[in-house]
Fold:
Amino acid sequence: MGGTRDSKIIGEKLKKYKIIYTATTEYGAMLGKDFAYKIISKPLDKEDLKKVIEDYKVKLLIDATHPFAVNASRNAIDVCKELGIEYIRFERECEKINHENVIYVKNFEEAFNIAKNFNRIFFMAGIKNLKRAVEVLGDKIIARVLPISVMEALKLLPQQNIVAMYGTFSKGLNRELILNYKCDAIITKESGEFGGFKEKVYGAIEANAKVIIVEKPKLDYPKVFYDIDELVKEVNKIYINSYQSF
Structure:
């Protein structure tokens, strides 16, 4: 289960196996094109996931979805338990940043309520939560989205409030964008190294903007790795000890 750059790196390191790669978006699916035996590009509920596992005789599931894709992870854990197959989670490490300009919150509603106190907010938390952000904060929002999401963003904001770019981005570029749009706060997610998290935070700090960070959800994963190479070693060990082929 992928859709992230983490999953692309993992897949490339495990491409000797027959990989069924799933992602919820067309962009996420493209990340699997160089190593996947089969790509499934659509959201999967529990029954869909169970059918994929049974149809392709999947013996091990690697969950490398986004840290905020908690429903997908919960479904995967439940289905693996029900079918008796191995579940392995890759989780991005993300150390806390202590600074007077940084505010951690538990959810987006809390983030939006705090953001009401600022004049202009650079929204760096993805298209999925933009609709609610605009409902609460209106045209205070400057939203950075992937180019593929521009049409969806235009339904919510005028074009001058949308920055369409493909990342990740350097600290310097983040700083200059925040300054250029005269934002005094940003909203972002605790997304880890591959999400350009530190570059967003420190870019905002250098622009003297408040940083409102939505903490990543905490799940009780049956087996979790924070290092890709260690995960790959575990998969190879499981293969050698348990299966003749995947």
